[in-house]
Amino acid sequence: MDPLTWLLIPLATVFMASVWSCCAGRSRRTDVWTDVQRFDRVRAALERAATSDVPAPEPPAAESPRPLGRVVRV
């Protein structure tokens, strides 16, 4: 069993290297301008949200906590 364990290490390494090479060699989108425009739209929306004068919501009213489990009265 011990030699099989040592054989598993290089086999796992070969497998992970093949998965990495498939992921690294995949074709990527080259449409950079739409990505830049999308980033600009998101940045503008976040700036508008940060500078808006919308008041923060009020926290909910505190309620009395419910007992956890069974209450034993003596």
Structural write-up:
This protein has helices at 2-24, 32-51. By secondary structure, it is mostly helical.
SS-based class = mainly alpha
How many beta strands in the DSSP annotation? 0
Overall geometry comes to flat
Radius of gyration: 29 Å
Helical residues, percent: 55-70%
Parts with pLDDT < 50 across at least 5 consecutive residues: none
Spell out the helices and strands N to C: HH
Q: Please, what is the average pLDDT?
A: 80
Let me know the largest β-sheet: none
Strand proportion, as a percent range, falls in under 5%
Q: If helices are DSSP runs of H or I spanning 4 or more residues, what is the number of helices?
A: 2
Amino- and carboxy-terminal Cα gap: 64 Å
List its salient traits:
74 residues; mainly alpha; 58% helix; 0% strand
